[in-house]
């Protein structure tokens, strides 16, 4: 990245154009060896961030750039610089289908572990050549996560019995 100049009233981030685009774009043509190679690079990059106490908070295939068989993590707009590795977060950030389940429990969670969960979803996308954001979700639990089921909407099930009639 090159320094392009000073903008006193604006914050600007200027970066090179990456012709290969995002991981989302190359998913359909990836083979397993390439998926594994990219995933090792991603793990090293996330490890570097976490060692610097940075939690990305929005890892997903759209935020991973591909250039010359290398991966670059982009879009640090939701990232946090945390004082220690033990710092817990309370605010959900990121893209719902990449979020770890603990972010929906309304109690403090480890943002570094949430990055690791998102990294697992990214790898799943790489292995199965699927962009989770562009497919219909058939699993009811994932549908719930995707639509951010609110606790108040659960009231409609209050009269259901937990006993089985079998």
UniProtKB/TrEMBL annotation:
<dbReference type="InterPro" id="IPR000719">
    <property type="entry name" value="Prot_kinase_dom"/>
</dbReference>
<keyword id="KW-0808">Transferase</keyword>
<dbReference type="InterPro" id="IPR050660">
    <property type="entry name" value="NEK_Ser/Thr_kinase"/>
</dbReference>
<dbReference type="GO" id="GO:0004674">
    <property type="term" value="F:protein serine/threonine kinase activity"/>
</dbReference>
<feature type="domain" description="Protein kinase">
    <location>
        <begin position="1"/>
        <end position="166"/>
    </location>
</feature>
<dbReference type="Pfam" id="PF00069">
    <property type="entry name" value="Pkinase"/>
</dbReference>
<keyword id="KW-0418">Kinase</keyword>
<keyword id="KW-0067">ATP-binding</keyword>
<protein>
    <recommendedName>
        <fullName>Protein kinase domain-containing protein</fullName>
    </recommendedName>
</protein>
<dbReference type="GO" id="GO:0005524">
    <property type="term" value="F:ATP binding"/>
</dbReference>
<dbReference type="InterPro" id="IPR008271">
    <property type="entry name" value="Ser/Thr_kinase_AS"/>
</dbReference>
<keyword id="KW-0547">Nucleotide-binding</keyword>
<dbReference type="InterPro" id="IPR011009">
    <property type="entry name" value="Kinase-like_dom_sf"/>
</dbReference>
């Amino acid at each position: 990245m090159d320094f392009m100049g000073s903008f006193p009233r604006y914050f600007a981030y200027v970066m090179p154009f990456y012709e290969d685009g995002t991981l989302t774009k190359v998913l359909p043509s990836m083979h397993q060896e390439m998926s594994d190679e990219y995933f090792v690079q991603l793990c090293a990059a996330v490890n570097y961030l976490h060692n610097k106490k940075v939690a990305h908070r929005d890892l997903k295939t759209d935020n991973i750039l591909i250039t010359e068989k290398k991966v670059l993590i982009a879009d640090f707009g939701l990232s946090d610089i945390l004082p220690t590795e033990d710092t817990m977060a309370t605010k959900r950030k990121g893209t719902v289908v990449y979020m770890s389940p603990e972010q929906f429990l309304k109690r403090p969670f480890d943002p570094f572990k949430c990055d690791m969960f998102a990294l697992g979803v990214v790898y799943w996308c790489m292995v199965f050549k699927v962009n989770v954001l562009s497919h219909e979700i058939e699993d009811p639990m994932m549908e719930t996560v995707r639509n951010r089921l609110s606790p108040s909407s659960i009231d409609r099930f209050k009269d259901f019995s937990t006993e089985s009639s079998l």
